[in-house]
Amino acid sequence: MSDLTLEQAQAVVQAGLAESASRGLAMNVAVVDAGGNLQAFARMDGAWLGSIDIAIRKARTSRYFDMPTGALGELSQPGGPLFNIEVSNGGLITFPGGLPLEVDGQVIGAVGVSGSTVEDDHAVATAAAAAVLGAAGA
């Protein structure tokens, strides 16, 4: 299994911070490696303290299941096939803002973003995740 490099993780965080700033938002951006371990993190000035844990959990949730956290959330609604999955693994986050990081079709980590609406969180995570490809040769 390939793993995320520190340079890639830092590029993802920097892209998330840049996108957050361009939107006038203060966000927390977390990146986990292929094993779900925190590799890089940044909390922008003024970002909610409560979103630190949420960003990290979004990244881990996305890596544990190799899917966007919003997609997992759709499956975990009452009556859904994964109802109550959020209480597993020490607590998961099943709303948008977490995305797998892929290079050449292989998941090498994940990013989690928290600090605004779920729509903003997802948009910033999308911009951040795209940066892994720019740093893929690292």
Automatic annotation (TrEMBL):
Gene3D superfamilies: Haem-degrading domain (3.30.450.150). InterPro entries: GlcG_carb_metab_protein, PduO/GlcC-like, PduO/GlcC-like_sf. It comes from the Bacteria. Pfam families: HbpS-like. SUPFAM superfamilies: GlcG-like. This is Uncharacterized protein GlcG (DUF336 family). It comes from Cellulomonas cellasea.
